[in-house]
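Q: Hi! First time doing this. I have a protein sequence and I read that you can turn it into a structure. Is that right? Here it is:
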Amino acid sequence: MNIKKTIKKAISAIEKEIEAVRETPSNDVLTNGVLQKQSESHIYVFETTNQGLRFAEEIRAKLRSKELEVHEIDFKEGKVWLDFPEDFGPTIDEVYLEWENDFVLKKMEEHLYTLEDKYEKVDQLKSLLEPAKHFKENSSGYLVKVDELRNDSQTEAIEKAVKNNVLYVWGPPGTGKTATLGFIVANLLREGKRVLFVSNTNRAVDVGLMNVIEALYEIEPMFDLQQTTRFGEAALQDDRLESILFENQVKIKLDGRKADAVQLSTSLENYKKLQAQIDKMMLEDEEIPQKLDLECQLLGEKVDREGGIDAMEEKIDKLLNLNERYELKKKQLVATTMAKVCTSELFWNLSYDAVVVDEASMAGVPYLLLMAAKSKEHLVIAGDPMQLPPIAITNDPESRAFLEQDIFTFVSGAETTEDLFLWHDENPDFTCFFDTQYRLRSDLAGVISSVFYDGRLKSGEKILERGTNKNSVALVDSSKYGPYIEQEKGGRSFNPSNEVHLKLIEQSVKKLSLKYADDSIGVIVPFRSSVYTVRNHLREEGYRYVEVGTIHTFQGREKEVIIFDTVMSGELQNGALRHYSVRPFDETKNGLSVPRLLNVAFSRSKELLVIIADLQHVERVYGNKFLGKLLGSVKEISL
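A: Yes, that's right. Below is the predicted 3D structure, encoded as C-alpha cells:
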C-alpha cells in the first residue's frame, strides 16, 4: 500500500467532506431540552436532525438573554447532548446555537498536510497500513499481569499489545473488548510507558478510562491516578473521573500555586514597604526601631533566598501562569476523543510510547492515520468490523467510499466476512479475535456466531448456565395480519409507515412493561422517519421512557429488552401490493453494511430480543439474501 497516496486520498476526501458540511446549517434553534445529569456539569438532551452539529467543536448559545459557551458531549442520530455552564432547571424550552461546521475537519486537514510532509519519518504509519510487512515484536521479557476473569484470547491480546509495535484486536459484542483494553493500558503503564487512549465519543472514552482504573486497582493498586488525565468533557458521572479531569487538575494546581504566589507577593510587598519606611527615616536622620529593623532584615533574607526582587517577581508571575501543555505532557496516561487530539493545540507535536484506539472500526481512515502518527512504539487498534462503519455526508462517491471504510477492511482489503477471517488467520502475529461472548444468551449468540462470525463465537460458561431453559428470541410474524406500508404524500425521502407493525410494537411493549421497567426497553427501527412515528405513538399510549431509535442510535449500547421492527411489507399502490427491497436490508445495494447493521440490531439485548417481520414479504424479496437467511435461523430458536 502506498502510504503517500493514502494520505493524499485522505486529504482529498476530507476536502470533499468540508464542502458538504459547509452546505449544512451552522446555526439552529433547539427546543424541549431535558436535564440528564447535574453535578459539576449540567447536561441537557435535545432532539435534532441537524447533521452539522456532528462536526461542532465550539458552540455559542443564546438562552434567556444570556450568551454562553456550551460543549457537545455526544451526538447520535436524532439526539445531541450539550453541557451548559450552569443549571437552567429541569428543561430548556428553547436555545439558539451557532457553531463552525468545519472546525474539526479543517484541523484534520491541517494535520494531514503536515503528515504528508514527514510521513517517511513516521514508522507507525507503515505499521498501521502494512502490518504484514512492518510488524515487529519486542522481546523485553516483561510478564503481563491480568485478573482471573481474562480468558485465553484476551490474555493473548494483552501479551501481544505489550510486545508488538502494532496489534489489531477484533472484539465482537459482549466479548470484553473494552475491559481487556483496560488491562492492556494498565500493563503498558506498569512498564513505564506513556499512553494515549482515544475513542470516537466522550462516553466511549469515559467507559474505557473507567476500565483502565479498575484494571490498575487489580494489578497495580499503588499507581498514582493523578498521573492520568481525562482531557475534554466527561459524559459519565463518576467521582473517579471528576478527580482526574484535566480542567479540574489544572484548577487545583493553579489554586495551590496562587496561594504560593500570594504568600511570596505579600512578603515582597511588605519588604518593599518596610524598606521604603526605613529609607525615609534614614533620610530624615531618625532612629530606626530595633523591631522594624529586624522585621525588614528577616524579609530581606527571604527575598535574597529567592534570588532578589527581580527573581522573586518573575517567580510570582510564573506561579500565576500555568503551562497547560507542559502539564499535559507530564501525564503518563491521557484519555480523550480523537477529535480533541486533532483540535487542541496542546497535543501539537506531542507523541506517546503507546496509542490505544477503542471503537476504531467506527473511525475513518484519516483519523487512524493521525492517531498512528502519535505513536512511537505500540499501536493497538481495537474494534469490530462487523459493527457499524464510519459515516460521511459528502455526495462525492469516491470520497464517501473512502471515508466510510473501516480500518480493518481497508488494511485487509476484505470485501466479505470470509475475507476478514482469512486475513486474521493468515496474520496471527498482529491480530487477535475474541472468541467468547458473555452478554447474549446462548441461543441468540449461536445464531449471531454462525451468521456473522463464521461460527467462531462461543458463549461463556455463565451464559450457558443462564440460558439452559430459557429462550431469548421471539420472532413475531406479521404476515397473518395483512400488513402493508404507506408513505406520506409529498415526502422528499423514504418514510414508510406500517400500521400493523405499529400496533404489534404497542402490544409487545404493553406485555413487556409488566416485567421490565420502561427505560430498560428499546425499540430499533431501520428508518429515521419511523423513529418519530413509533416514539410519538408510544408516548401517546403512556410509554414515555421506552427509548426508540435507529440502529446507529444503539451502537455500543444495550438494553434488557430490544424490539426490532423491520417495518417493511408490500407497499399499497393503486389497490395492489408492490414488493421491493430497501437499502438497509439488501447487500446488492449496500454491501457489507447490511450484515453490520443487522449484527448491531440483533446484539443489543441482554435478556430478550423481539423481532417483528412480515415473513411472507421477507421470503419473497430477501429469500436468498442475508436478511432471509438470518430470520430463517432465528425462526428455529424463537419462542
